[in-house]
Amino acid sequence: MHGTAVAPTQFPMQMSSRKKIGSSCGILLSLALLSSCSADKKADAAQPVVRKEGSVDPRPVVVDAPGQPYRAVPVSGGARLTGTVDFDGPMPADSIITIPPEVQGCGSRVTARAVERTGTRIGEAVVWLADIRTGKALPTERRFELANDECMLTPRVQAVLAPGTLNMASEDVAMHQNHIIDVATGELAGIAPFNDNGEVVPFDRLLTKPAQLEISCALHPWSKAWILAFDHPYFAVTARNGAFDIGDIPAGTYRVKAWHPRLGSAEQTVTVAAGQPASLALKLGAVAAPTPPAAPDSQ
Predict the structure, then answer these.
(1) Which helix (H) or strand (E) covers residue 218, if one does?
(2) Predicted TM-score (pTM) of this structure
């Protein structure tokens, strides 16, 4: 072998030094990889949650999240609360929707009523006791319906119990695609597609807690409905003459709220005595709700 010979004692020492260097590099590399992985995990955790297609921005809601569960108790000599809901302000006008010829099954025109009313008395307003936490037992029947009828959703406004089941149906030969939005979160909570009349789409996991839902048809943007879900039975929807009636209320003082999707909300306090009737006049109009989007070719 040519070249300078290496002393036997030097070779092991060099190898030992290289092993130490290699070991140190390996440790540093491992630490770098762990740091990188940790950084990746932190970066992944910081990524925004991907929202469902069709979701919108969250909006303020009128249904309060309860601070404690509702509890059924015996109610002896419950009070009855009756009253009316009025609107103080200019009434929004109805819309006449001209249906394009290519849209089948809705006829040539649809009248979208802005407000069901008798004079200034407002129908389709939800009235409820906002802070009641004990009272009469909940009814066992908790199935509610919402239907596409003549290219409009009906009932347009309803109050329901949660938990419950919502059956969406269609009485039209027209196609519909109903989108359900949870107003508080903006999330698309469900889609109900319809191709013909007589179809029913049940939602048994939609009404699980107090919520404010907005339903619209993606194919007919003038067709809208609203649902307020409560965990107690002390609510009502006003008739066309603005009247409401809520019974079997335990004696006490309560906040009473009223809400209409086009005309805003109102709130008053009422004290009811055992077995005694009480009356309340609520007036909307302090803050009007946003106007639903106009349909194409409306006039």
Answers:
(1) none
(2) 0.79
